[in-house]
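New to this. Help decode the following:
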Amino acid sequence: MSQKLNNATIIKKGIIDIISNGKYSALVAEESSMKRCGGQGDVLCGVLATFASYRDESDTSTPLLEAVLSCILTRKAAKESN
């Protein structure tokens, strides 16, 4: 799907988050809360937007790293909120 969208970085949330930019993929299986709370995708989006706002536009590998770090941070925050 990512390749069809001009190598956009895509996050598929689930028990294990899958991130792909069409060339590389990553899995995030960081422990999280037992039940995903409503709005967790909104939090993930906000964290990702914050990381993206500091991006060096010349580094094309950065969006994949930003997505992975955003998934990890969101999962850790959800676990701590229990």
